[in-house]
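Project outcomes to date are best conveyed with an example. Our students and postdoctoral researchers have been running inverse folding experiments weekly, and each run begins with a structure described purely in tokens. The record below, which covers 464 residues, was selected by the lab manager from last quarter's runs and is presented without edits.
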């Protein structure tokens, strides 16, 4: 790995554990999923760049040769980057839609890295690739002096140094041709050195598209591998709702949540999926199995103890006898807390799991309202639950457009921003550092945290 940048022409040929195989892909997918969310949220290039750089430092650091010298071994970072890319190729090659979304996100990540690369290392990287371009010599430049001068910006015309150009077949720079930023002659495009990056991006994109199509043809050979196929299937759903952290226990805030606090908390802090479940439970005095599972694990991770959970569900199921409750429901509540059966500590369901598993049927209340409600019901539900928190009819168009495009977690993130604007959350902030919602508990925990910060600021101001 002589360079930080990589065209991923050669597959990784080293051995890895199944755990490394999965972790490298998940960390890369966190970044690619947030890039796609950024496009859905209409972020500017600078905003997208800022959010992506933060995630890269956290999950996929990649140091340049100069910055890594004497401090860190860049080989391990580059091996991990290389492996993660190829694992995701296997996951996203299986349909034209997945391939398109993967190529867009990967090209954006490559472009961000290319822009940030040090000039000397960028030049060395480009020299190592064969793009089939020819540097325009002095004689040819003088032959087309007027035409080439027309490509220069005002500041470049006044610059003392001679401007440089390369000649390449016009099919390699279709976007520059469309923008009339090249001089065309005999099937070749004369490209200013400032625009050479467009050739690099186009080569990266077309190369990746061809590689994905080739991988798709080879993929059926892997169908019998029971270790990898379920993993790849799960990874391919990563663009639906991002990659969440696993929420299996409550954050250590020191504040105990009691059964009698849930109703008020639901109105102030819960995402729409959980508000809908709470409303159904309050109205019907009952929830079906998958509804109880989705809501019960959410409350458990929120910080509701087992004793308070039994009390909450018993009060909620007020139209049945104690005997029926103890026989039919209490065991399942204790089981979800890891106190019965195999005593596993079950995590709460992430947005991805809610969107892709246990599709709700008639009479069910679980699932994701942004995906499973009709457009009319969703708009009505949003106004019913969030109008008092600042969401108005003028906000619905943007939310419904995002839902229509299939970016359900982005719609939920936008609702969070709107309903927490009074607490200082601006458009594009997401739930913090620009990140999108990927888990109901993440939404609720951040909402509670913002309220605490606001109340603490109020206390400080009152003391002053």
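After processing, the design step wrote out the following sequence:
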């Amino acid at each position: 790995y002589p360079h930080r940048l990589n065209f991923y022409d050669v597959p990784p040929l080293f051995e890895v554990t199944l755990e490394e195989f999965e972790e490298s892909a998940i960390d890369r997918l966190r970044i690619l999923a947030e890039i796609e969310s950024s496009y859905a949220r209409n972020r500017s290039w600078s905003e997208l760049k800022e959010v992506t750089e933060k995630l890269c430092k956290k999950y996929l650091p990649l140091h340049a040769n100069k910055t890594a010298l004497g401090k860190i071994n860049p080989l391990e970072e580059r091996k991990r980057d290389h492996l993660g890319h190829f694992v995701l190729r296997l996951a996203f090659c299986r349909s034209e839609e997945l391939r398109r979304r993967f190529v867009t996100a990967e090209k954006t990540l490559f472009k961000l890295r290319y822009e940030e690369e040090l000039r000397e290392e960028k030049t060395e990287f480009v020299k190592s690739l064969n793009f089939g371009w020819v540097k325009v010599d002095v004689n040819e430049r003088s032959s087309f002096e007027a035409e080439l001068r027309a490509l220069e910006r005002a500041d470049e015309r006044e610059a003392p140094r001679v401007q440089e150009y390369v000649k390449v077949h016009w099919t390699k720079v279709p976007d520059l041709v469309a923008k009339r930023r090249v001089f065309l002659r005999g099937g070749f495009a004369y490209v200013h050195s400032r625009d050479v990056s467009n050739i690099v991006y186009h080569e990266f994109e077309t190369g990746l598209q061809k590689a994905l199509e080739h991988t798709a043809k080879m993929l059926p050979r892997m169908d019998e591998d029971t270790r990898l196929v379920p993993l790849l299937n799960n990874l391919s759903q990563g663009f639906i709702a991002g990659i969440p952290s696993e929420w299996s226990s409550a954050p250590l805030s020191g504040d105990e949540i009691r059964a009698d606090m849930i109703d008020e908390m639901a109105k102030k802090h819960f995402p729409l999926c959980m508000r809908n479940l709470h409303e159904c439970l309050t109205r019907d005095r009952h929830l079906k199995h998958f509804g109880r599972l989705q809501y019960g694990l959410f409350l458990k991770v929120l910080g509701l103890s087992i004793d308070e959970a039994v009390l909450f569900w018993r009060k909620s199921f007020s139209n049945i006898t104690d005997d029926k409750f103890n026989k039919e429901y209490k065991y399942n509540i204790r089981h979800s807390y890891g106190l019965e059966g195999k005593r596993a500590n079950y995590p709460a369901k992430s947005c991805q799991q809610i969107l892709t598993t246990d599709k709700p049927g008639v009479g069910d209340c679980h699932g994701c309202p942004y995906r499973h409600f009709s457009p009319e019901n969703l708009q009505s539900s949003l106004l019913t639950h969030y109008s008092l928190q600042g969401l108005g009819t003028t906000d619905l168009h943007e939310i419904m457009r995002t839902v229509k495009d299939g970016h359900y977690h982005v719609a939920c993130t936008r609702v969070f921003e709107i309903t927490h604007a009074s607490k200082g959350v601006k458009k594009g902030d997401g739930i913090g550092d620009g990140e999108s919602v990927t888990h109901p508990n993440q939404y609720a925990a951040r909402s509670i945290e913002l309220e605490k910060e606001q109340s603490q600021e109020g206390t400080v101001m009152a003391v002053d």
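Residues 114 and 207 are 16 Å apart (CA to CA). Strands lie at 134-135, 165-169, 183-185, 188-192. The training component of this project remains on track.
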